[in-house]
């Protein structure tokens, strides 16, 4: 007999065991493997001349496929004896085990995802493995990040990437692709969440019986740093019943309001309450109901802050009063060997019941036995199998006989019993061997004693006295140990018992199997097998500890790691709150052993399941059997063949190992569970873990994420600084060693704790003139009483008056808290610092029952918090920009700053900035180019595309630093992620995305995204499928004449240019395709150029002055296509329509609306005019082979006008003008770049103020700025030296709201409008009415920006509900503003309303501003103010 694993792994040693018995001649043994890679000899011409039991080792080379079926052939040949047999095996390439660990299981938008890829072999030793690809996939299967050719050095590779501020929320996947093509995945979630400040623990019994009328429920509120919560709890207990319905078992709530019980109570000093709760058992018809489930919901409200957190618990009320749990049990019996079972008797709570009688009854023989449970509730029962007739028997185990209850209102307990079936093991000679099953889990590092029983047939043994039993031990499909047990049998000793000692080692986890067998003289093999559960221990013993275990925030601590010498250890420490949210996501030994590769497998190749052995089916001694009857009565019997098969072994043998009657039975179904009949089947899993609702978090969630190496002594010490968070930090270490392999540390804890601390309560912002109450709450968690003084640091920026006078220190005993308040009136504008300190004091006064103590550490706690103080009125900002080029003579320019009469006092300020590079301001502010929201697909691109132009420009001019590059690439990566929010399944993009199919893809935006993604490929990873999908979608929109059909909504309706939209759109798409760049010979591009040629011929025949925008696009498209003649022709036509003044050139729209009079400064040009002018600039700069000096002169004049339109951030008025203008300026900057000498810039007032700036190559990207002291005032700017510089003066001030003509009608009021309703102090509605009254039939996309009055914040669900309106595509809540995106506004009035709630009381409330404006025509705007219903001091008497 040769035993070979059914699964063979390549590149690692495998074992097969050969057993030659009763050998009487020399034989030659050959073993070969036939697969798709050819015929391979495992060992050949092995000569054997005597009986043998030996295991041979062999190694298979790596196969071409991951796994394949092969045939293993065994041939044993002698002079008179020949044995040949082939059987199927599965050859599997050895795969590494990949573990992916993230620092957290869930992330917020904008956070960094840190993760590790750990690579180990099957013995958990580190591998240096190359991964061709690692990528991140979002919930829509978009690949948002990837890395190529990553190597796990010493078994570990750490990677990270940043989520965008608006990622798609849901389940993300990290995918690691191996060289074999196999993938390993790990998921994490991205969601809006905040960590719990404290945990709500609901403790109630898991199960009680119907005899219990009440159960005790305990609810505790515990802060993450371990201290009790002071507050109030509301309990709601609702019963639901488990009914058996047509659809199976279902939980149903009771009807009527009286079934639920409500409890409201104050928490005690330990943060807990304990309350008895009725079980509702007296109201139930127990004949129809199987069980009751009590749902316990608890809401704890924190004292002082009003913060609420929830927890839940459940208790099952069941009929069953006891439970019999099988501990040791076999599914088969062997006649002559006692059948022994072990059970544990438990009460409903799982507590073992000692000194109780448990009974067993065998119906076939009417056999009864009983035994008494020990102190662990265990009882062992034995059945004499000598009296069993037949191939199986049923037995019943029970605690007490069930009583009868006929009345439906009778309450009667049910006592659990179970009925099992045991089947006979097959043996030709009625000889058997039996391995005792093992209860529980074997611990690593111990010797396990295996008990073996046997009974033998004397007639078969004959004269045999030397009896040998052979055994094999297997784990994970491989033979790891073999041995024998031989003994001399005395005459008549046919039955006995012996033991074997097996060492339990870590590599045997999680399950090890043992096969024991003997070969009898008649050629029969008797066998048994058993599975042993092994502790999930890991080979590398890792320890982790903090010193000290409790420390002050911001203090120093030591983290000690112990592991096998020279281990590489990956450390992680996270806030305990993270683990409260997702405890199941933690890495553990069980998690590692549950990986597919590490699991125990019982693989049986299908080819062998149906193998027939004619000699086995038709032996002479069974020829007269009724095959059908025999098979049906014994088909579930177990024989030696099945025991070998269950081990995952193939047996090549001519010995008797099979019950012949099993041959026709093709469906060999492995039995995994016994037949158990019980009258208490509860199919529904109840989740006993309390669910905690999360509220908020202030500090980083991951503290430590490092790799360290332990020294030769196996120790590493790491100095760490404890974060400011007052919480408990949970740390773990994963260590890898070449010798010892992988290990995980137990969780180590460090409690960052301050014996007392102070917390501030204040609004986010106030308007100058408003008063508010600043509250400082001091909490004492020392065991002793302390005297504490609380001080607010004086500042010229505010006036603070204590609310409670004549007291400057307070006595606080254990778990006490004191709130100190000041009435604050801010005096300065901008960010104002409030610094509050709480300090313990030595005092002889009595405090509590004695003298107050002073702690050795943490005597003082100081908290600094910012408050934004804003001026009254409306913010205004004007920019005065100049592009000045110095030559031999000094250049001078006048600067006059003026202010309007309706100015808000002290609100005016001005700044003068100098840049040495035309893009300096834009480079500095690539994520803040516009002071506008960017919540739709097109607006997001203003955060994305400019980074490409900046990177290209700085690269071409050799100014790119690593800092700028990494920042820009980070912005690109975030913008790429965000833009995927707006992708449709068909590959197109729209302003607000798919939105459940409500919107269709937009042609114009899809072209914009396609071009930008294609260009971004040079700097970041972009999944090619997004580019191919978008291009395919655009191609389907192309008509036969080459033009493109419009699809979706174009929110900027001024981009139609004066001809039909199709031509302008086609020109835009053609530009996008050429900028990818696609060649002009590409079929789609070639047809598109044909469309544009026809359009130009049509435009030429029309009247001038009506196609400026389209001409600008056509000129740039012709330049990109290399058609220089057409480019010049269109530019000449455009030159005739140019607006030329002050040595600058630009273009205006036809029928441009008349500018309002009375402006102090020239208003910023409309978005469309900046955009079309920028296209003309691009057309001039795209001349082939290079622009002529004349064109560069024209370009400089255009640049002079364009730069004057820039805002203070380097952007323009809207999105498209910003993107196109920055593209054009970057091209101009690269074309004209020269490393010049020094340039000196001087700004001086008419008085004494004067400041000089020097610009040179080393600081040309630097922003140099000075605050101008005199506003209003006159200044002069002087430039000397050589080179061009860019100056920018920003004038900012506030004005009071005045009625003026606007393009929108806007009405704002509150509900209620007055303070008569007492609730109006805390909550009210803001109601808005908006309509369009401008020059067009309909507006572009409109933003409604509602500022909150001080101390109030919006109720987010009521804001979100606005999106259900057909007009609103999106809402945002940011700091103290609500933004509403409206698709478009007509002359029909739109109504919006939402609710606001008071956070912090503020006196003398000032009105707040509402602004409605056209996103693309920002000059079209309307302003209105609203007041809170209770805004005056007299209305706030309950303040």
TrEMBL record:
<dbReference type="GO" id="GO:0005615">
    <property type="term" value="C:extracellular space"/>
</dbReference>
<dbReference type="Pfam" id="PF07678">
    <property type="entry name" value="TED_complement"/>
</dbReference>
<feature type="region of interest" description="Disordered">
    <location>
        <begin position="1140"/>
        <end position="1160"/>
    </location>
</feature>
<keyword id="KW-0082">Bait region</keyword>
<dbReference type="InterPro" id="IPR002890">
    <property type="entry name" value="MG2"/>
</dbReference>
<keyword id="KW-0722">Serine protease inhibitor</keyword>
<dbReference type="InterPro" id="IPR011625">
    <property type="entry name" value="A2M_N_BRD"/>
</dbReference>
<keyword id="KW-1015">Disulfide bond</keyword>
<dbReference type="InterPro" id="IPR019742">
    <property type="entry name" value="MacrogloblnA2_CS"/>
</dbReference>
<comment type="subunit">
    <text>Monomer.</text>
</comment>
<dbReference type="InterPro" id="IPR001599">
    <property type="entry name" value="Macroglobln_a2"/>
</dbReference>
<dbReference type="InterPro" id="IPR041813">
    <property type="entry name" value="A2M_TED"/>
</dbReference>
<keyword id="KW-0646">Protease inhibitor</keyword>
<keyword id="KW-0964">Secreted</keyword>
<dbReference type="Pfam" id="PF17791">
    <property type="entry name" value="MG3"/>
</dbReference>
<dbReference type="InterPro" id="IPR011626">
    <property type="entry name" value="Alpha-macroglobulin_TED"/>
</dbReference>
<keyword id="KW-0732">Signal</keyword>
<dbReference type="InterPro" id="IPR036595">
    <property type="entry name" value="A-macroglobulin_rcpt-bd_sf"/>
</dbReference>
<dbReference type="InterPro" id="IPR040839">
    <property type="entry name" value="MG4"/>
</dbReference>
<dbReference type="InterPro" id="IPR050473">
    <property type="entry name" value="A2M/Complement_sys"/>
</dbReference>
<dbReference type="InterPro" id="IPR008930">
    <property type="entry name" value="Terpenoid_cyclase/PrenylTrfase"/>
</dbReference>
<feature type="domain" description="Alpha-2-macroglobulin bait region">
    <location>
        <begin position="433"/>
        <end position="581"/>
    </location>
</feature>
<dbReference type="Pfam" id="PF07677">
    <property type="entry name" value="A2M_recep"/>
</dbReference>
<keyword id="KW-0325">Glycoprotein</keyword>
<dbReference type="Pfam" id="PF17789">
    <property type="entry name" value="MG4"/>
</dbReference>
<comment type="similarity">
    <text>Belongs to the protease inhibitor I39 (alpha-2-macroglobulin) family.</text>
</comment>
<dbReference type="InterPro" id="IPR009048">
    <property type="entry name" value="A-macroglobulin_rcpt-bd"/>
</dbReference>
<keyword id="KW-0882">Thioester bond</keyword>
<dbReference type="InterPro" id="IPR013783">
    <property type="entry name" value="Ig-like_fold"/>
</dbReference>
<feature type="compositionally biased region" description="Basic and acidic residues">
    <location>
        <begin position="1140"/>
        <end position="1158"/>
    </location>
</feature>
<dbReference type="InterPro" id="IPR047565">
    <property type="entry name" value="Alpha-macroglob_thiol-ester_cl"/>
</dbReference>
<dbReference type="Pfam" id="PF07703">
    <property type="entry name" value="A2M_BRD"/>
</dbReference>
<protein>
    <submittedName>
        <fullName>Alpha-2-macroglobulin-like</fullName>
    </submittedName>
</protein>
<feature type="domain" description="Alpha-macroglobulin receptor-binding">
    <location>
        <begin position="1339"/>
        <end position="1426"/>
    </location>
</feature>
<dbReference type="InterPro" id="IPR041555">
    <property type="entry name" value="MG3"/>
</dbReference>
<dbReference type="GO" id="GO:0002020">
    <property type="term" value="F:protease binding"/>
</dbReference>
<dbReference type="GO" id="GO:0004867">
    <property type="term" value="F:serine-type endopeptidase inhibitor activity"/>
</dbReference>
<dbReference type="Pfam" id="PF00207">
    <property type="entry name" value="A2M"/>
</dbReference>
<dbReference type="InterPro" id="IPR014756">
    <property type="entry name" value="Ig_E-set"/>
</dbReference>
<feature type="domain" description="Alpha-2-macroglobulin">
    <location>
        <begin position="702"/>
        <end position="792"/>
    </location>
</feature>
<dbReference type="Pfam" id="PF01835">
    <property type="entry name" value="MG2"/>
</dbReference>
């Amino acid at each position: 007999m040769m035993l070979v694993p059914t699964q063979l792994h390549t590149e690692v040693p495998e074992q097969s065991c050969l057993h030659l018995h009763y050998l009487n001649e020399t034989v030659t043994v050959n073993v070969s493997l036939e697969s798709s890679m050819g015929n391979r000899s495992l060992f050949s011409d092995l000569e054997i001349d005597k009986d043998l039991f030996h295991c041979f080792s062999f190694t298979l080379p790596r196969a071409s496929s991951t796994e394949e079926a092969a045939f293993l052939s065994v041939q044993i040949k002698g002079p008179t004896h020949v044995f040949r047999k082939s059987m199927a095996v599965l050859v599997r390439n050895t795969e590494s085990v990949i573990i992916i660990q993230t620092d957290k299981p869930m992330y917020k938008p904008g956070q960094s995802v840190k993760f590790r890829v750990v690579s180990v072999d099957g013995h958990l030793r580190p591998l240096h493995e190359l991964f061709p690809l690692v990528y991140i996939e979002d919930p829509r299967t978009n690949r948002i990040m990837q890395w190529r050719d990553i190597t796990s050095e010493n078994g570990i590779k750490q990677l990270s990437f940043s989520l965008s501020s608006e990622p798609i929320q849901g389940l993300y996947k990290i995918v690691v692709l191996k060289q074999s093509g196999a993938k390993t995945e790990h998921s994490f979630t991205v969601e809006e969440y905040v960590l719990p400040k404290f945990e709500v623990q609901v403790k109630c019994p898991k199960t009680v019986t119907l005899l219990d009328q009440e159960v005790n429920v305990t609810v505790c509120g515990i802060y993450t740093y371990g201290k009790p919560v002071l507050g109030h709890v509301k309990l709601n207990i609702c019963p639901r019943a488990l009914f058996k319905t047509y659809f199976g078992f279902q939980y149903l709530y009771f009807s009527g309001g009286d079934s639920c019980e409500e409890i409201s109570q104050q928490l005690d000093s330990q943060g807990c309450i304990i309350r008895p709760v009725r079980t509702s058992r007296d109201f139930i018809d127990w004949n129809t109901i199987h069980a009751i489930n009590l749902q316990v919901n608890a809401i704890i409200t924190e004292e002082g802050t009003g913060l609420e957190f929830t927890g839940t618990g459940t208790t099952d009320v069941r009929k069953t009063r006891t439970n019999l749990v099988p501990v040791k049990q076999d599914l088969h019996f062997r006649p002559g060997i006692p059948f022994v079972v072990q059970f544990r008797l438990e009460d409903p709570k799982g507590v073992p019941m000692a000194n109780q009688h448990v009974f067993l009854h065998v119906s076939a023989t009417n056999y009864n036995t009983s035994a008494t449970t020990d102190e662990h509730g265990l009882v062992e029962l034995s059945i004499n199998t000598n009296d069993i007739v037949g191939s199986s028997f049923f037995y019943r185990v029970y605690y007490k006989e069930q009583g009868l209850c006929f009345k439906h209102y009778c309450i009667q307990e049910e006592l659990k019993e179970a009925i099992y079936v045991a089947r006979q093991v097959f043996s030709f000679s009625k000889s058997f061997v039996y391995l005792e099953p093992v209860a529980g889990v074997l611990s690593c590092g111990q010797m396990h004693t295996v008990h073996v029983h046997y009974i033998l047939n004397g007639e078969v043994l004959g004269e045999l006295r030397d009896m040998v039993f052979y055994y094999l031990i297997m784990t994970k499909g491989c033979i790891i140990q073999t041995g024998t047990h031989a003994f001399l049998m005395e005459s008549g000793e046919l039955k006995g018992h012996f033991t074997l000692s097996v060492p339990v080692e870590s590599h045997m986890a999680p399950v090890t199997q043992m096969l024991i067998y003997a070969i009898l003289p008649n050629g029969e093999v008797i066998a048994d097998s058993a599975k042993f559960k092994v502790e999930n221990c890991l080979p590398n013993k890792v320890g982790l500890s903090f010193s000290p275990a409790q420390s002050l925030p911001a203090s120093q601590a030591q983290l000690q790691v112990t592991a096998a010498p020279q281990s590489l250890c990956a450390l992680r420490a996270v806030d305990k709150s993270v683990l409260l949210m997702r405890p199941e996501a933690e890495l553990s030994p069980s998690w590692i052993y549950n990986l597919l590769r590490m699991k125990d497998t019982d693989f049986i190749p299908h080819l062998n399941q149906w193998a027939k052995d004619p000699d086995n089916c038709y032996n002479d001694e069974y020829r007269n059997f009724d095959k059908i009857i025999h098979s049906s009565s014994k088909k579930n019997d177990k024989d030696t063949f099945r025991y070998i098969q269950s081990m995952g072994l193939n047996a090549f043998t001519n010995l008797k190992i099979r019950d012949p009657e099993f041959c026709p039975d093709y469906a060999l179904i492995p039995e995994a569970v016994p037949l158990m009949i019980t009258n208490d089947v509860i199919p529904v899993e109840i989740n006993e873990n309390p669910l905690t609702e999360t509220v908020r978090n202030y500090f980083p969630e991951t503290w430590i994420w490092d790799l360290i190496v332990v020294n030769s002594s196996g120790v590493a010490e790491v100095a760490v600084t404890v974060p400011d968070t007052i919480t408990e930090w949970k740390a773990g270490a994963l260590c890898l060693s070449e010798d010892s392999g992988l290990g995980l540390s137990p969780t180590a804890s460090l409690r960052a704790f301050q014996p007392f601390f102070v917390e501030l309560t204040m609004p986010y912002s106030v308007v100058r003139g408003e008063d508010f109450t600043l509250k400082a709450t001091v909490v004492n968690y020392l065991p002793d009483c302390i005297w504490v003084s609380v001080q607010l640091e004086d500042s010229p920026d505010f006036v603070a008056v204590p609310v409670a006078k004549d007291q400057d220190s307070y006595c606080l005993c254990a778990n006490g808290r004191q709130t100190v308040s000041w009435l604050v009136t801010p005096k300065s504008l901008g960010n104002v610092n409030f610094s509050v300190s709480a300090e313990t004091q030595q005092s002889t006064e009595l405090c509590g029952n004695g003298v107050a103590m002073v702690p050795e550490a943490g005597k003082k706690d100081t908290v600094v918090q910012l408050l934004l103080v804003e001026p009254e009125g409306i913010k205004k900002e004007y920019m005065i920009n100049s592009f000045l080029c110095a030559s031999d003579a000094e250049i001078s320019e006048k600067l006059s700053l003026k202010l309007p009469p309706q100015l808000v006092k002290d609100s005016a300020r001005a700044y003068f900035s100098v840049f040495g590079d035309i893009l300096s301001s834009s480079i500095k502010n690539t994520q803040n180019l516009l002071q506008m929201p960017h919540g739709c697909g097109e607006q997001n691109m203003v955060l994305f595309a400019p980074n490409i132009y900046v990177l290209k420009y700085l690269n071409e001019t050799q100014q790119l630093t690593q800092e700028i590059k990494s920042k820009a690439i980070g912005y690109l990566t975030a913008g790429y992620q965000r833009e995927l929010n707006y992708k449709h399944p068909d590959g197109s993009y729209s302003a607000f995305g798919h939105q459940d199919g409500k919107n269709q893809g937009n042609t114009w935006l899809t072209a914009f995204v396609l071009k930008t993604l294609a260009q971004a490929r040079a700097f970041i990873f972009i999944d090619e499928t997004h580019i191919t999908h978008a291009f395919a979608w655009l191609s389907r929109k192309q008509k036969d004449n080459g033009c493109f059909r419009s699809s979706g909504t174009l929110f900027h309706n001024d981009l139609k240019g004066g001809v039909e939209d199709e031509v302008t759109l086609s020109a835009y798409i053609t530009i996008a395709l050429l900028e990818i760049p696609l060649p002009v010979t590409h079929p789609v591009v070639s047809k598109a150029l044909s469309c544009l040629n026809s359009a130009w011929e049509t435009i030429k025949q029309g009247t001038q002055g009506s196609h400026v925008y389209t001409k600008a696009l056509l000129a740039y498209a012709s330049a990109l296509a290399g058609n220089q003649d057409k480019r010049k022709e269109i530019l000449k036509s455009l030159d005739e329509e140019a607006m030329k003044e002050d040595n600058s050139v630009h273009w205006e729209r036809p029928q441009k609306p008349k500018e309002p009079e009375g402006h102090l400064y020239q208003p910023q040009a409309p978005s469309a005019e900046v955009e079309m002018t920028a296209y003309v600039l691009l057309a001039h700069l795209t001349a082939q082979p290079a622009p002529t000096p004349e064109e560069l002169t024209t370009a400089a004049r255009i640049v002079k006008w364009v730069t004057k339109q820039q805002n203070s951030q380097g952007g323009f008025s809207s999105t498209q003008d910003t993107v196109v203008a920055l593209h054009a300026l970057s091209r101009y900057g690269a074309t004209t770049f020269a490393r010049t000498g020094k340039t000196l810039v001087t700004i001086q007032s008419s008085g004494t103020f004067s400041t000089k700036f020097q610009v040179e190559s080393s600081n040309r990207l630097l922003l140099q700025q000075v605050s101008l002291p005199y506003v209003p005032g006159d200044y002069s700017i002087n430039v000397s030296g050589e080179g061009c510089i860019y100056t920018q003066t920003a004038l900012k001030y506030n004005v009071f709201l005045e009625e003026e003509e606007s393009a929108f009608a806007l009405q704002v009021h509150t509900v209620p409008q007055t303070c008569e309703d007492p609730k109006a102090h805390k909550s009210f509605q803001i109601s808005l009415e908006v309509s369009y009254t401008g020059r067009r039939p309909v507006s572009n996309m409109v933003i409604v920006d509602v500022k909150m009055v001080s101390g109030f914040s919006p109720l987010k669900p009521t804001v979100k509900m606005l999106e259900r309106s057909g007009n609103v595509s999106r809402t945002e809540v940011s700091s103290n503003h609500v933004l509403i995106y409206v698709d478009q506004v007509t002359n029909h009035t739109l109504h919006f309303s939402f609710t606001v709630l008071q956070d912090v009381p503020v006196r003398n409330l000032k009105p707040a501003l509402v602004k409605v404006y056209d996103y693309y025509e920002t000059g079209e705007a309307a302003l209105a103010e609203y007041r809170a219903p209770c805004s005056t001091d007299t209305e706030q008497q309950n303040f």
